[in-house]
Queue: 4 jobs
Job 1
Amino acid sequence: MKLGKTAVGFVILVAAGIVAPFVIYPVFLMKALCFALFACAFNLLLGYTGLLSFGHAAFFGSAAYITGYVITKLGFPVELGILTGTVFAFGLGAVFGSLAIRRQGIYFAMITLALAQMVFFLCLQIKATGGEDGLQGIPRGFLLGFIDLSDTLNMYYFVLGIFLFGFFLIYRIVHSPFGQVLKAIRENEPRAVSLGYDADSHKLLAFILSAGLSGLAGATKSVVFQLASLTDVHWGMSGEVVLMALVGGVGTIFGPVVGALVIVTMENYLSGFGSWVTIIMGVVFVACVLVFRKGIVGELNALIKR
Amino acid sequence: MFEWLGITPQGLYGQLLVGLINGSFYATLSLGLAVIFGLLNIVNFTHGAQYMMGAFVAWMGLRYFGVNYWWSLILAPLAVGVVGIVLELTLLRRLYRMDHLYGLLLTFGLALIIEGGFRQAFGISGEQYDIPEALTGATNLGFIFLPNYRAWVVAASLVVCFFAWFVIERTKLGAYLRAGTENPQLLQAFGVNVPVLVTLTYGFGAALAGFAGVLAAPIFQVNPVMGSNLLIVVFAVVVIGGLGSILGSILTGVGLGLIEGLTKVFYPEGSSVVIFVIMAVILLIRPAGLFGKEK
């Protein structure tokens, strides 16, 4: 029964993804897909391992910069550029993860935030990142040498493919034996250790996977918008992805996708109102924490079960 | 001493002074975080916003009501403390029985609201707050011209830090606080009103941040984002020092400020990241932090 429900969800998601660009503005959809993948990757860590990272912008943003740099300055083809950015995020995740898992709970959040701020300052100072301007005009180029990505629909389906790949991968990770051990660690770490599981190496691997997939989202975003900027590595971005997961439902498969859609839509409509976006995001944060901890999908699941 | 590196003694002492000032702010803010964390088990993400509010209340007081610096030094922390108490009573209180992460997320949301509100009202360009007349000018110490206001900032924040340390470690009230950190249920059983203690502690921590904000107002530009950037550095300071020890937070704060100042002299490019690098190294060799206890 449960499997059936998820399968239905998948089919709806794929069908909606294919039809959507004929109904809704495709550039908006691509933005939503990139952030949805980012939020799903983040949720792999918070929702299924119980680790709250406040520095995921570091992976998202640095991958965006690397991809932009190798495509623009070194002339890499687009798919290789995205791959390079993603691999870099995996590597950065390995370094940051091995430092951060040495402490738990709130310290973990503070460490990831501080390390991400270091990346922010580096991106601000290094010449290759273009400082305040960021990297602009990243060419979209041709996928596999012949599919013209400057065509919006081609680009959209490429992004949809990447998203579905990442989404399915996360689904497989969560439902693998490895994912079950992660959940055991989340629920009761000492007990998981006493059963013979090496909690630290599981946490580290989850961290690396989450970082790498966040990087994939960031790399794709830089190609879509042809831009990598300081906003991508700023702590505000780390906060945003936490909010997306929280709004949609932490620890649910479809939650982060819904959360990302909600937040991106909100930003889209409020973009003319200056700092009100920040204020409203703060209010949503407070409301989620106080009265709406399960998020949209979590609450829906609870309703269906009743 | 370092002339062969192209560094003048004046430059060195100047940067060390800047480091000392930054260090005093790190110390005051991480002390407030440590006090709040001790009793409430919450990492107060609103701390940076409270620091910013202190500076803004002082600026608004002078601009609209003619309240001078010295009154602001008392009134602004009080105002920030009262706002903190209201937040604790209405919102934070509901989360004590839940995972600590929710407290962190709630205070992060509050920080966004406060910062966004001030940005909407005052823009991000920043406002000027003049140094009070009694503290303008500088004193010649022989090897350096010491601006009087900066000397005052260092002295005032260190005095406040040591006052806080004295209250917590050497008085009856402090004994209650420490007991509440160890075992709130037992303390309550002895007839101490723990919820009131918790509320006042949060108010005190917020007021401390507000006080630092007033001190900072004439040095840095008073602007809505002044707190959030500082707070992330303070988080790194807290990870390095550990939240367990009051004296430890003060020492770590001042020490890291000085190291940051030295980095500005010898390797300016590294000054914005040096504290984060130190944090990474400390995590490698002593994961619990310099003054932390391994749980």
Note: The interface with chain B takes residues 52, 99-100, 102-103, 105-107, 109-111, 113-115, 117-118, 121-122, 124-125, 235, 239, 242, 246, 274-279, 281-286, 288-290, 293 of chain A (CB under 8 Å).
Job 2
Amino acid sequence: MIEILQWSTLATCGLIAAARVPSAVRGENRSLFYIFGLMTVAILLSIEKPYVAIDQALGGINLANLLLRFIIFAAIYFVGIRVTRGFGADSAYRRITGKAGMVVLLVISLALVVLFFMMDTVGSSAGLAAVSEKSERNFVLVEYYGAAGRAYPAYISLVLLPAMVRAVRGRLPILVRIAAALLATGGVAIALTLLFPVVPPEWGAVEFVINYTAVLCFVLGLALIWAARVKNSRVSPAKRTYTEK
Amino acid sequence: MTLPAKAFQRWLQGIAPDASTADVCRISGIKRTTLAQQLVRGKVSVSTVVSISRAYNVNPLSALATFEAYQDLAGPQVPPSRCELVSQVSTPDLLRAVLARPAMEQAGASGTASPPLSAAPHATSVKNWVDAIDDGEVRHRVSAATGVAPQNYSAQLTANRLSPELALATALAAGVGPAGGLVATGLITEEEAGWPPGARQAALDSLSDGDLTALAGDRLQALGKVLRRQEQDQAQTEKIWENLG
């Protein structure tokens, strides 16, 4: 079940990234292509087999996990910038790119790196599951490391949330409003990941579902806005000739 | 609100005793599936009754009055007030009337008879009608009488819609002729409501230059607001597509 979710999320994201190649070549919103590309790589790295293969190439000390965290940070940072710009959420934009946003990013990144090198990380293992089992100390460190890795996406998605709720209630085209609802759902899911340390271990599957729900919501939300634009540009020339007659 | 199918069948028996459902549909131009569905659900729409009564040369107003929910439509017809009549003049017609007034005529282009008024309803006829009969408390009284939330009522007006029972309730709450709202919503014609021919033109002519100009100003201001809001929405949508499309 979880495997299906993982691979289908990867496929969805990869297909959208591939579909954006032509417009990226034309120079239309390249950063969106990078967002989808980064997300695809991030999902790839969170699946066991590709993760182990890539990490082995990087020396087998789970550097790929650290890389994954920063890829997620980069993707979510660009999502934050694009979405706040697009939806005209200026205060949210400042909270991401301004001093506060930079301080949050810096502190979390430092914590992430420091925690990573405090652990004994030898032996590739997706999600650092095997690393965590090595010792009590490692177990605690992995928990903190994971929390730091989820903190930045949660920060961005909470910053985006008010603007998304406003957009859903507004008078924008219906596809854009559905997209905003998806982005808001994804944001809530990411914020929920902060609660993972208190989730009982037997509910492990819940964590997977929340993670992939968040990714899917973000990817589909962004893709839907794109679809709305494509649809509009197809409809409006016809409309124009009709009214100009 | 719809009409109970039983009462509808009884009424239909009265005006077309021997006609089959198929005949009724053919004569009145209603789709057979539509009527069949309404009968199965036990809820016949008001517009069905209006179409059928027109087809059988029955006044739709008196037809509706035979149903319990619309019995207020029975009785002697109350002539429409001047402000109701003027509210059913479309904004373009109103502006033409302003331009034809001596106060506005400087170029001496007088003598051209203005074209006849376009028939009610017009693009903002529902909102203009309610504004014309509103003493400031009508919306509250309607919402108290029908249990419809004020914001839902306002939303209908903004969309230039009003369900027949709300139109009736509004007229009753404002103390004007019960059929006025049905004319403003386009359910029945002025003639069917017993408005004298040329009444709107006469009401328009009876306005002083000052009143007419002020009214036209109000209409233009409202129109400007709507157009500006549409432009803002459009600009926001464009911005979203520019950043995320």
Note: Chain A has one domain: 2-244.
Job 3
Amino acid sequence: MSGLSVILRREIRLALRHSTDSFMVVGFFVIAVVLFPFGVGPESNMLARIGPGVIWVAALLAAMLSMERLFQTDYEDGSLELLVLSPVPMELTVCAKVFVHWLTTGVPLILTAPLLALMMNVPFEAWPVMLASLALGTPVLSLIGAIGAALALGARRGGVLLSLLVLPLLIPVLIFAVGAIDAHLMGGGAKANLLLLGGVLLGALALAPWASAAALRQAVAS
Amino acid sequence: MASFTGENLSCIRGERLVLEGINFALEGRGAMILTGPNGAGKSTLLRLMAGLMRPSQGRLLWNDTNVSDDAAEHNCRISYIGHADAVKPAFSVSENVGFWAEMNGSKGHTPEQAMTSLGIAHLADLSARYLSAGQRRRVNLCRMLTSGADLWLLDEPTTALDSETSASLGELIAAHRHKGGMVVISTHTDLGISDAVSLPLEVTR
């Protein structure tokens, strides 16, 4: 386990020194949502209706924006080869990197979401469900995104390829997350959708580290 | 004493046969120098030995056990110096060396000893962003010293190194072999390893 804590400390320290990356993700998230009132008009009922969906789609795109760099710098400077060759299993290394990615992008997105919900006139009673859906859903974005980031290594225009690979896989997350908020607002109860979202999270947690590690070994071997 | 052997190794990269029928045997304290023109497969052979790639044919054996049977075990035995130096510009020199030392289990030199023997102890607190190519290479070599690995795999280690550091690398290799370690080097520089086995590689067609 000491290897895990070593890599966790390294990733956190790296993220702190590159903290502008996190600010850019949050900045993108805010701007993307702010564009909607300009695009569809400032009518408050309309904004409240589309608010949760807009916030979720923007969070998804913002997370994708930061995904490309997850393994890219390590791949370019040769660290990735050495991480594969280190005694620490690659699956654990991936877990550590994904966890820190979530800490530095997912958590800031969750913290910013209430501000945007206020702006989009999302009813207060939906806020807890929205935050719960983000808390369950954003780790899935990091986990599934890591598979795409590992697969896209070495490709030209890796960022675009990554989005093409990963965004279709994230549709269930979007459906269950927004479904939970809508169901709550209609009085149907959000529990079923949130449980399904939790199931997706557990599934991703069980599969993504192995899939990413395999893709990374492949990237290093070519 | 440990032994490291390759039997009939072949490797195909991008539909091109890079290595064909390579045999070698290395015992503890042994050294092997890979020679041959550019494109002869020296780097590929070192990557095969490191376990970064699998041979298309043939076997790599450590004490008569196939290395791919237990890749994690093999990772503890080797230290690989490739073309890229794996130095993080956001970290200081000592943070860079210290991370890999901890990651590999701190079995070899301490980071301080390693930095002193490669003459970068005075740069310990400097951000690695400001290092020259030769200094970055020395940081990478520090990682190898701290790993405590039995087998050193060095791919053109003297690139960007000055003659003084190349000489001290030769001494470090001699000390490593004295303790029972092995080295495989691809180099065009004379590192003063007089008793090394030479493995000539040729460009395959």
Note: Chain A has one domain: 2-221.
Job 4
Amino acid sequence: MFYSPFIRKPISVSQIMLRVMLALIPAIGAYLYYFGPIILVSLTLASITAVATEAAMLKLRNRPVAPFLQDNSALLTAWLIALSIPALAPWWLVVVGTAFAIVIAKQLYGGLGNNPFNPAMIAYAVLIISFPTHMTHWLTPAMLIHADLGFAGQLAYMFGNVLPQNMTLDAFTMATPLDTLKTQLHLGTAISSIFGQPIFGGLAGQGSEMVAVGFLVGGVYLWATRIITWHLPVAYLGSLFVIAGIFHLIDPAHYAPPLFHLFSGAAMLGAFFILTDPVTSPTTHKGKLIFAAGAALLTYLIRVFGGFPDGMAFATLLMNICVPLIDLYTQPKVFGKKEQAR
Amino acid sequence: MTQLYHFHGGVHPPTHKALSVRSPIATPPLPSKLVIPFHQHVGSMAKPLVQAGDYVFKGQLIGMPEDGLSSAIHASTSGTIAEIGMQVVAHASGLPDLCATLIPDGKEAWVVREQRNPITLPIDEIRHILRLAGIVGLGGAVFPSDAKLRGGKHHVRTIVLNGAECEPYITCDDMLMRQRARDIVRGGDIIRRVLGADEVLIGIEDNKPQAIAMMQEACVDRSSMRVIAVPTLYPGGGAKQLIRVLTGIEVAAGVRSTDKGVQCFNVATAYSIYRAVAFSEPLLSRIVTVTGNVHKPQNFEVLIGTPVDELVAWAGGKPDTTHHIMGGPMMGVPLPNDQVSVVKACNCIIAASDALFPPAPPAMPCIRCTRCAEVCPQELQPQDLYWFAKSKNFGKAQEFHLFDCIECGACSYVCPSHIPLVQYYRFAKSEIWARDNDKKAADQARERHEFREYRIEREKQEKADKLAAKEKAALAAKPAASDDAQQKIQAALAVAKQQAVTPKNVSDLTPQQQAEIADIEARRANNQARAQSDAGT
């Protein structure tokens, strides 16, 4: 130890990543309760893939493997991917997504701290473009399910691609509420009657809205423990609320209420766990507000006017590109140099 | 209640101050030798006035301040000068510097001192006294106090006495305020008088209630002087931060605080100013906290020049000490060895061990979490500065206000990737300075060369003009003059020419002088030829 300061706060990247993973527990709990234990399988698959590909890439890049595996960043990416895509899908879906995220989106850009794009959102984008059908079969929540496949049956489908006779995938999966809303609106149904359908709950989708609440709870924990600041989630959710609110006020029959947008799709996950990825978001406070507001606007536009069921991933990636520019133009004034500028 | 302002960021490292305030300031016995550097201050080195073998009295001037920014150096006790030579000194550079080695005779025989009344003493004389007493800023900056008391173009309204002492472990100012509050306040009076300031604000962090009480008691009868408890928040004792907290004024980098009507002095400096002015006591000793890996952490009144190993031994140094740190754990400097001596900048010696300061884990990549930006008291973007310093993009680093960094270490302290951020900024700063110096030298050389070219050209031109004028004159004279006259003119011209070629002060020379001139001319011609060939290549 040759330089000052000789003391440091007991905190590490590894601990920060672990805390974020801890903050995902409420959402995973809600997932388990409403959609069954299959999510644990996809979380495990993603984790194994992430660690294996990260280790292999570190080895290939001649980087020390142990310290970088211990930083937990690959595991966190894995969990975020597993929570972003349908849990019940052929095993290779989550494996391909995670491997792409770690190998291409993270390690090829230089590894931890050097990736311009959020790896989890890259995985989502790659999967939805490459395997759109698999990405639209979401588990039906337990209370709406008509034909129970059972955990063993789910595993058989996941790893063997076999379904019991007389059973189709549609019996226990469905489109997301966002997707359903979009399709129904295209058919000319009014919002009020769409929301009367059983898959919609009090806020957004049955079950999935509670997972969103889980993300919100975890996000508040992250804010309370100062892992994240309020800027990104508040600006994102606030902007989304305002934009959705304006459209809803103008035409309530065709535009869903703002709370529906906040609690459906990846909005809550994105607000607290995706946009807040420090590597791919701006560093200045003002920049964070601009970044999140832009992401909210893009999310809404893609959801309502675009071709994809959710806009979070593409909104994040598009805003990721703007980060260096946003940072450059939002540099705060430094100590003692504020008055002169005014 | 006084309105307090706050500065951005800051951190709360564990203070460990309770260790060293359990017993009063102690006076250690005379050390076996004193090694007194001649350069302990900002500005030029003091000129040595003594030689090896000289006997000196305690308080005798042994280093005379040079013109301009400089300060005096004194014999800290009476004894014999054993050596004047280069020795490694307590400084971040770890380089040797000129020092006097003094072997104490144990008599503590003082030079003649006089008592003076600081109230009636002319202000110019006070500055002169301080300069010759070697008084410098004891907060660590060691800037000559007489220079700080010269004021500026603007009226200094407020004096800030800095008793914040925000660095962990250090308690020397705390103990000084507890035990010698009256003399500090009297020093404050002198400073206020010299600068003609309206008020003196004494800022002390609120984790030092006893010091606050003693200082309040000491200045209770002074309406222009107030003790203000400031929140404990590192680096609240940085001059810029304390000025901000007490007055709301932000002194930007490169701006003099006097231009904003404020001047800041450390409480220990105020104390030394009073002792120097009232009792002709030069700066011979200072309070040093000895703490860390020692049996009895404590404050000592230490003679300047005392070897660190002897000082630490009095506090009971433990055997597993790996090295010593001068200053606090946030901004301190690791000492090059244990034999270096206590200098005026030395407020604290921390005996370090691996248990006390475990080595940093290997640095991870920056994840741009901006914890550093959240704590930066100068409101910089340390993560960007790190990026630019690392990629040696020094222009960008300057654009992002690298030189506003006060190197407080708050960013490194909170970095979850354990990146030695301050080290990167120091590196970038020194690289930029080095390049600036290189550029200056190159600019100077180019200017000189260009001027020389211009001069040669001008001389050529002048010669040509002279010749042309002469020819013209000759031509004009021709038709009017007869052949006879013409011949006379020719003769006169020849003489004139002769004279023009050989100027008067070069005629009638001794052969020796001529040889010298020839020699010089030859060298010049040689140089010219070389310069031309250089320019040609």
Note: The first helix of chain B runs from residue 123 to 132.
